[in-house]
Structures are given as C-alpha cells and as structure tokens.
Amino acid sequence: CWKTYLGRPETNGNRCNAIGILGSALRESELPEEALPVLEANLALLRRHWSHAEESILTVQTNLANCIAFLGRHDEALVLKREIYTRSVAAFGVSHENTILTGSNLASSFHSLHLYGEATPFLRDQLLP
Prior knowledge:
Largest sheet: none
Number of strands: 0
Helix content: over 70%
Strand content: under 5%
Order of helices and strands: HHHHHHH
Low-confidence stretches: none
C-alpha cells in the first residue's frame, strides 16, 4: 500500500502517513532493523515539511525510541524519551494526556534500566504531583 504514495512529492501528507504506517508495522512485526531507517526517514520528513506539527513529531519520536529500545539500545532510547517528555511538557503542559503517557514511558525506561533513584523522584515530583 505504501508504494502507492512513494512517487508523490515529499510534501504530500498521504506519503508521509504511509511511511509512518510502514515503519510502525515493521516495528510491530518484530522487524526493528527494517523499521528503524523508515522511522528515521519519517521523522526527518516531518521535521522538514511539518515542523509545526509538534504532536505528530512527538508521536514519531516515541515510535523511534521504542524501536531503538527493542534493538537493545536502551541508553539511547532513554535520551530520546527524556527529550520527548520535556517537549511534551513544553507543548501541552504537565496535565495533558500525551505528557502523562510520555512520562509513563520515561518512568518505564528508568525501571528497565534499574535507575530507581531517578524513577522515584520523577514519579513523585513530575507525574504524580
């Protein structure tokens, strides 16, 4: 299906959406090595042509971070998840559903990496004030 949109200009929204769906489908099919460059291309495309679409960019970054974590690159994924949370707070505020979700993802990464010293104050001070 995504090949239908491949020949369209980069600025075509359907093309961008198709690339995003392809990347997510590859990741969910447990093909993270194949998904990673597609997700990176999707993020670059969004930043280049839809830089104002913060929510979409954060969603793609989250998919990218999850893919990177699935590849076992947990420290790199943690850096990205910290950035996503910070940008979500700035864009939507601390009480927004997306911010709480990205905060939960970050807390989960702290737990996975046994960073309990960071997880506890983060949960107490940021997510559950």
